[in-house]
Amino acid sequence: MKKISTIVASAALIVSMSYAKEIKIGVVLPLTGPLAAFGQTSNDGLKIAYAQRHTLKNGDTVKIIVLDDRGDKVEAATATRRLIDKNKVTAILGEVASSNSMAMAPIAERSKTPMITHASTNPRVTKGKKFVTRACFIDPFQGAIQANYAYDHGYKTAVIVTDAKQDYSVGVSKAFKKAYLKRGGKILGRVIINSGDKDFNAQVSTIKSKNPNIVAFTGYYPEAALMVRQARAVGVKAPFIGGDGVGFPELIKIGGKAAEGFMYSDHFNEAAATSKVAKAYVAAFHKKYHKPADSMGALAADAYNMLLNAMNKCSDPSDKICVNTNLRDTKNFQGVTGLINIDKNGDAIKSGVVNVVKDGKFAYLTTVNP
Ligand code: PHE
User: So what CATH class is 2-137+274-351?
Assistant: First the structure.
């Protein structure tokens, strides 16, 4: 009895002393499953950003609730509903894979909950949505980065590899093709893979027979690593170029020597980071994780800080409409990944980089401005 009365008394004290509210941000990530590296690296970055700042201007504190969707569309949607209905979050951050963000977006839209995806690049994620915004560039931009880089470095013919199960890959393939043809490149063919495939013998044989200057691989890292290995084993010499979905340590771990020379467009490379914001993030990241700061974590940090900035512009930071309006209004936001401007579609206009696997590491090649 005595114990209970003590608890009640201290709770009453807290209430009477502080008017600060707790503002909740719900996060949906693939922390487990085949694309777990997407979720884990996002979460790493989020932790850094949270440690750096989790109090709003008015004294309210921010709480993050992270749910694992195991990389599954249906679970991504379920997690989003739960965060909005049960946890009463003010905003949603996530997902990584475009297909999963596309399963979440209609829920955010219907419930008028601001959603920011830090990493989903397919244009359809935000298309026609008022409540969905992103912290990353879109696939027509990165497809053009890859196509132009390839063509301008003497790779004038290509075979495209498309993962038919991923909206992301379908979108990057389309974007690459369009930009490459425009530049003067020639597409010699296209091979189809499906997420989860392990045997790419048929596809690499086709690539070998077409003998392109370059292979435009538009899928994710698990298939990239296996495919590039199998391609080298049958004697495909052409380099691979891909998008943001391939630059993960697994590419090197599983791809081994075969992954050397794999080029890809990406959101960030710490070697090219010059802003104060980026330097502080990179330093904190090194201190905590003892490894280079990856682009995924940096994007998650940026999305989180864009949300906090929008919240700080509202007298009531739990007012979803106000937060959304200000999020959509983000202009000249200095993020870890660069300067971010949100356009009328909710897409981020910002620069990208090209990286390459060199001596078992991800090395920076160049920056491309919008
Ligand atoms: N852009 C990818 C998608 O839309 C996700 C991704 C982003 C993967 C950044 C890796 C790094 O599906």
Answer: alpha beta
